[in-house]
Amino acid sequence: MSDMSEVREALRGQPEPYRWEGVDELVYKEHDTTFRGVTRRVLFGAGDGQGVEVRYFEVAPGGWSTLEHHEHTHQVIVMRGSGAALVQDRVIPLAQHDLVFVPAWAWHQFRATGDEPLGFQCIVPLDRDRPVLPDADQFATLSADPEVAAFIRR
Questions:
Q1: Which domains does the chain have, with CATH numbers?
Q2: Which pLDDT band, with edges at 50, 70 and 90, does 88 fall under?
Q3: Which of 8, 82, 112, 140 is the most buried (most CB within 10 A)?
Q4: How far apart are CA 94 and CA 84, in angstroms?
């Protein structure tokens, strides 16, 4: 960057925690009702030239993301709150600063378990496939494990 004005344009400050200047809060998923209390913000995307999208999600206390899988991977960094995640066939606890890798085609779902939102950054490829929801047989297979059955929501 050649001058200070370009540096200022590159900065997306935080007027309040977990809110960035020029970054809109978006609907988690349009035309989908398989989640509760989730918002998303795109921190870096196609216009930033890296081939990835860096998103910030917040799951409200008691909320959950969609139970899904797909070909692309996720790299998740927990920034606030506490919760748990299903990754493939394991339920793992989540706390601030934890790192979670979601492999390709792994079933996954995130839930907030504390009194504050579970906030996390999620890094995915720009060119990615659409999520696939479990059919009745896949849901039954996942639910065969009592810990997983107690965790997942639809």
A1: 11-151 (2.60.120.10)
A2: very high
A3: 112
A4: 5
To which residue do tokens 């479990």 refer?
134
Residue with tokens 């297979």: 141
CB-based contacts of 81, cutoff 8 Å, min separation 6: 59, 96, 112, 114, 116, 117, 118, 119
> What local confidence, expressed as pLDDT, does residue 9 receive?
59
Q: Is 65 left (phi over 0), alpha (psi -120 to 50) or beta?
A: beta
Check pLDDT > 90 for residue 3.
Answer: no
Mark whether 122 is an active-site residue.
Answer: yes
**Exactly one of 86, 94, 122, 142 is catalytic; which is it?**
122
User: What is this structure's pTM?
Assistant: 0.89
What the block records as the tokens of 91 is: 């339920």
Spatial contact of 66 and 109, defined as CB atoms under 8 Å apart: yes
